[in-house]
Specification:
With about 375 residues, this protein is an all-alpha fold. The chain is built from twelve helices and two strands, in the order αββααααααααααα.
């Protein structure tokens, strides 16, 4: 008989702080998805009488000699929605695995979403571009943009407060997992930081590439299809390979990862210069996307530099026994779960009553395993 879906079965601890953390994330996802969904509807309504553009819809302007399309704005709204789903994944993983590093990363990611919403409001209402000017008289759109910023601001404060509580609550987990070996505990900290950084790298690089391919590059430009067909999936494969190299401690693969990541900042610096130097104001392909792309390039560049440094630290820790310690802990935990399941099958009534109040601890683990 299948077990009912509960917070405990999803890996959410019984702690009120952990469940509040997940609750805030769920409420924010619901609010932002609803707001951005309506923003997309408003955008489509405004453009419904537009002239067809390169991607099949939009408005053509003679003054700027370029296509100003509704997807130029819809892409930003979709990124908001995807960012919220990514944030929810970060929060759930962090709480389920009691990962304080990822809890902090999720809080910082929410602040980045707040900054992104400020950029969007600036583009629409404070210093609007020629195409964003179509929203100037739309009061509903202005209210929606302000509401988005308010939601992110309130949730950022809530996440910060809950992060402090969870940091104190989960701070002992590393000791329980790896014991008192200081070298292993330090190595595990860098291991967790790199795992979190790689997840953030995937999100920001893909988001940047999608914006570049859909908003700046032209359909007739081969670079567009190279970006969509090669660069985006290639970067995902590369970063997944990085996860694998870290987990199994493959030195040669990790060296390749470090070298490739170390060379990539040259590309982002080149794109920054290209976006801002020698641009024809009458035919500016970055007119509506410069602020957004600059934000993603700066964040991605900073993440890559930090990732390279942390990757080197993790590489130096290969071979000290961290991989074996993690595998041993996972094996002991799996054995504990198997023992609990066996007891449950032998005496379901008694086991059900006990398991409702069961909390995983090192003491319980030793008792069951011994």
């Amino acid at each position: 008989m299948s077990r009912p879906l509960t917070l405990k079965s999803l890996g959410i601890p019984r702690s009120i702080w952990a469940r509040l953390f997940i609750s805030v994330a769920l409420l924010e996802v619901f609010a932002i998805v609803c707001i951005q969904g309506y923003v997309i509807k408003r955008t489509v309504d405004i453009y419904k009488n537009g002239v067809e553009s390169q991607w099949g819809f939009g408005v053509l302007t003679g003054s700027t000699k370029m296509s100003i399309t509704q997807e130029s704005f819809i892409v930003y709204d979709v990124i908001f929605i995807v960012a919220q789903l990514f944030l929810l994944m970060l929060c759930w993983e962090a709480v389920a695995h009691k990962n304080t590093i990822q809890i902090i990363a999720a809080t910082l990611f929410n602040v980045m979403c707040l900054i992104y919403s400020l950029i969007q409001y600036t583009t629409f209402y404070i210093r609007p571009s020629s195409s964003a000017g179509i929203f100037q008289k739309d009061n509903d759109m202005r209210v929606l943009q302000i509401t988005t910023m308010v939601v992110y601001s309130l949730c950022s404060v809530a996440f910060a407060m809950l992060t402090w509580e969870l940091y104190q609550l989960f701070g002992w987990k590393t000791y329980k997992k790896l014991g008192a070996n200081l070298a292993l505990r330090r190595a595990y900290k860098w291991h967790q930081i790199l795992l979190t950084l790689l997840k953030l790298d995937i999100f920001f690089f893909i988001s940047y590439s999608v914006q570049l391919a859909t908003l700046v590059l032209r359909v007739s430009d081969p670079e567009t299809w190279v970006q969509i067909g090669v660069v985006i999936p290639g970067s995902v494969v590369f970063l997944v390979l990085s996860f694998w190299a870290l987990k199994v401690e493959k030195r040669r693969v990790m060296i390749i990862v470090i070298i490739c990541l170390g060379l990539s900042p040259a590309y982002f610096i080149y794109k920054l210069v290209r976006m801002n130097v020698g641009i024809d104001k009458n035919n500016d392909p970055y007119l509506d996307s410069r602020k957004y792309l600059t934000f993603f390039i700066v964040v991605t560049l900073a993440l890559i530099l930090v990732t390279v440094y942390v990757s080197i630290r993790c590489y130096r820790n290969f071979g000290i026994g961290l991989k074996e310690a993690i595998a041993d802990y996972d094996a002991r935990k799996a054995q504990l779960k198997a023992n609990i399941a066996l007891l449950s099958s032998q005496n379901s009534d008694m086991a059900a009553a006990e398991n409702r109040n069961y909390e995983y601890t090192e003491v319980n683990e030793r008792f069951v395993l011994e």
